[in-house]
Amino acid sequence: MTSSFQKVRALTGMKDLLPDSSASWENLEATIRAWLASYGYRNMRTPVLEHTRLFTRGIGEVTDIVEKEMYSFNDALNDEHLTMRPEFTAGMVRATIEHNLLYDRPQRVYAMGPVFRHEKPQRGRYRQFHQIDVEALGFAGPDIDAELIVMLSRLWKLLGLNAIRLELNSLGQAEERAAHRAALVRHLEQHKSVLDEEALRRMHTNPLRVLDTKNPVMQSMADSAPRLYDFLGEQSLAHFQGVCDRLDDAGIPYTLNPRLVRGLDYYNLTVFEWVTDQLGAQGTVCGGGRYDGLIGLLGGRPAPAVGFAIGMERLLDLCEQQEAADSRPECDIYMVHQGEAAQRQCMRLAERLRDEGLRVIVHAGPGSFKAQFKRADNSGAHAAVVLGDSELESALASVKWLRDQDDKGQGQQEPVPFDQLATILKTRI
Ligand code: ATP
Ligand code: MG
């Protein structure tokens, strides 16, 4: 008997984690817990559901998250507006206030788990995704901002990731932002004709975010806008310098990005992002910064705080790519030769192949053809390029395909004119 029940599928943008991939998640989580413990950060778990007003207040009304990304509903049983957490910080701060965690000391805490945002799903952007959220609550100095960044740099090292770079900015304090904001609104008004709809809507409510635009038409307007950095007072500059000095001490390179404002309303002073070019459009792996006003804003006794969130899916994607890159063969082409003239010609040809983006090893030192071919095989190269006396004479290199199983057949050798070498090799690699 067939059932009339219509099959149910997972929701768009929400993924199942199946047994074959769970090991990489569990390994990453274990590495992360040990890494956090090594800096004295302790775990906290807060509910997935919170009152909607926690987020509208804590994140800010005029933000992408609150304007259009929250999963909110009315719980008819209690007549309450509830929201699935779109990030951790607001809930962590609520719990800190509710349980008076800062009563006698600051706290280093973290949480890990799913968060929910109604976004257009694509690579690195899902509707349920996972964050590692780290918060240092009750600390005011630049030392703790730097601690968080140094700590992240250690995590990338632990995971063998080297293609992540740090972008840094300071948002100053509320008064400094107010002065800058007034100047910025004047600038936006002068350039009203190039502003898109969203920018026009936000220019009075959240003008700083207008600069965070990806619209090419607005770039030069954004580039010439007054910079917040020029409005920072002595104390804000000293705080920022304090962070930079400690990053220099730790040998961590960074780029100052005056356009970095982050998506949330509550940041002040230090803000940072770790970005990579290896994840396509969704290149931000981790974002964070200081939010000294948030605890007071949510009804607690005012206390400074700083934190960051890592996107787990993006981090795992990056780890997988790194693994694939690490297991890449040593080179694309291994050049085999006999005699000094052939060796010198190999060096010349290799430079041309590298100009075309190929990775080439020219055999160095002594070695019979047989020994050299063995090296070529072990290198994992796609092809060996062979030059001996006859090849020099004819100006035809012998290309031996080492890995292909296609119609040419593995081990097939073919003569290729020197000047066509790059073109022919590139079509097959
Ligand atoms: P983006 O500019 O990519 O939308 P964001 O500024 O909204 O990022 P944050 O709120 O700072 O992101 O969240 C911290 C991290 O969480 C991001 O750096 C990213 O790695 C990850 N993240 C954010 N949104 C998503 C999503 N929809 N799916 C997967 N990961 C995400
Ligand atoms: Mg976003």
Automatic annotation (TrEMBL):
Q: Name one GO molecular function term.
A: histidine-tRNA ligase activity
The EC number(s) given in the record are 6.1.1.21
Residue ranges of every copy of the Aminoacyl-transfer RNA synthetases class-II family profile domain listed in the record:
1-329
Which UniProt keywords are present, listed alphabetically?
A: Aminoacyl-tRNA synthetase, ATP-binding, Cytoplasm, Ligase, Nucleotide-binding, Protein biosynthesis
Q: What's a GO cellular component annotated to this UniProt protein?
A: cytoplasm
Which sites bind L-histidine? 87-89, 117, 131, 135, 262, 266-267
Q: What is the main EC category here?
A: ligase
Catalytic reaction annotation: tRNA(His) + L-histidine + ATP = L-histidyl-tRNA(His) + AMP + diphosphate + H(+)
Q: Which GO terms describe its biological process?
A: histidyl-tRNA aminoacylation
The entry's localization annotation reads: Cytoplasm
Q: How does it assemble?
A: Homodimer.
Alphabetical list of HAMAP family matching this protein: His_tRNA_synth (MF_00127)
What family does the database annotate? Belongs to the class-II aminoacyl-tRNA synthetase family.
Q: From the Swiss-Prot or TrEMBL record, give the protein name.
A: Histidine--tRNA ligase
- Specify the species: Allopusillimonas soli
